[in-house]
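The instructor's notes for this session suggest beginning with a concrete chain rather than abstract definitions. Hand out the sequence below and ask the class to guess, before any prediction is shown, which regions might be ordered.
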Amino acid sequence: MFESGFNFTYCEHIELFGIAQPLNVLSNLVFLFVACLVVRPYNGASWMPFVFQIKGPKQFRKLVQETFWILLLIMVGSFIWHGTEKPGTLWLDIGAIFAFLVWYLWYVLKQYPLKLLHRVFLLMIFIVIDLILTDTLDNHIPLKSGAFVLPALVFITMPQLFAFAEKVRKIQFSGLLLLAAIVFRVVDLQFCEVTGIGTHWLWHVLTGLSLYYPLKSLLKAYAPDSK
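After discussion, reveal the predicted structure:
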C-alpha cells in the first residue's frame, strides 16, 4: 500500500561515507534529544541516555523507560531507511512511527475507567480510521508520505483531555509544529533545485520537537506526585 501509493523519493542524495542521505540521517538525532529531555526530570536530572535512575512505582518506571525507547526506535528506523534506501528498510521507518502512535494512544486510554476489552476495541477503531484517512488524504491532497502522519494530529492534542489546562496552548503549538513538519515533507523535492538538499530533514526536526509537550503531559499524568 505505502510503497505504491506514496512518494518516498527524497531530494538529498549526497552520499557520505557510504550513507545515502547523511543530513536526513543526522536530523533524526532530534528524537534522542527529545527522549533525554522528556525523561530527564524523572531520571535524577541526568542527561545520560541508557542510564536510568527512575524512582516511583514499577509501572511508572516502566512507562518512562518505554518513552525513551519508543523515541529511540523511531530514530533508528529512520536512520536505517535514510542511510541505506533499501526498500525493505522502509517498513522499519513506517513501523516505528505507527508503533509510537499505538503506544501513545494506549496510555492515553488507560487514563480513563475503561475495561481492557474496550481499550482494545478503541485501539482497533483508531487503526482502521487512521488507514482510511491516510488513503483518503493521499488521493485528494498531495501530502506524499506526510499523509500517513497527519492523523497523528489527533494524538498531539489528546493530552488536553488530561485536564492540563496550563499545557493546552503548548500542546496546540506542538500541533502547529507537526503541521509545519508535514509542509516541509511535501515541498522537499520542490526546493531541491534551490537548496540542493531539500527540506525533508526539517520534517524530522520539527516532528521530533512536536512530541515534547504531549509526552511531557503523558508522563506528568502518570507521575506519582500527580495522583
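Then share the key points. Residues 1-5 have pLDDT under 50 and may be disordered. The chain has one domain: 2-226.
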